[in-house]
Amino acid sequence: MNRQAQSVVMFLVGAALLHAGLSGLYLRYVKAGLQPLLLASGAVLVLTALMTLWYERRKRHAPEEEHGHAHREPRISWLLVLPLFALILVAPPALGSYSAVRTGTALQKPYAYEALPKSDPLPLSVVDYAGRAVYDHGRSIAGRRLSITGFVALDRGGAPYLVRMALNCCAADAQPVKIALTGHVPPVLEPDTWLEVTGSYTARQTRDPVNNGPIPYFMVTEAKPVPTPHDPYDETWNQ
């Protein structure tokens, strides 16, 4: 491709990065903290492309003897822009139950436990509840009414989990943290449905059939479907 074509592709790449960063689409690929770098990269690419196009236009209007013989680029090279339009027009879904039931729970022992507010019910993330239930033996949450949000995954036997994919850097390294549900669980659950469950801590635990990792139970008293959150991944590990 010639310089002008390269600049157009560079401009489209930068515009796609800016679109993803400003629209929230980037959350399907990377953690929220990378948004400033993503926007800065897109701005640099767009600015570089515009400067290159301006330079090439000036060179085109230079005296004829300064020009070399121009070669026409193959049109098939423009197929390089197709992945960019796919990025803008076709947003991939966040990882869900299909990945969760085929990957072992990635629960890690927390370095510390933050003090909890006195709200009722107490909202907790899947990762926070699982960590306190397994490694703190529920000392900080026992006897309290809790509220947790995640998506539904069913194991091969139909047992329901509430799951959140925990993110280190990007969606490629996302791993599930799972909570097993017991109590007043809805009789019919669809995988990938987002639920807000209210209930309490229970000392009961099970083992993940994939990697034998610990999975705590949660005693459900109420469950209701909720919309998919703006950021479907859990970034607790990055805080």
From TrEMBL:
Domain of life, per lineage: Bacteria
Membrane-spanning residues: 7-27, 33-55, 76-95
Stored Pfam families: DUF1980, DUF1980_C
Domain DUF1980: 9-91, 133-233
Record's keyword annotation contains rRNA processing: no
This protein's UniProt keywords: Membrane, Transmembrane, Transmembrane helix
Name under which the protein is recorded: TIGR03943 family putative permease subunit
Species, as recorded: Streptomyces anandii
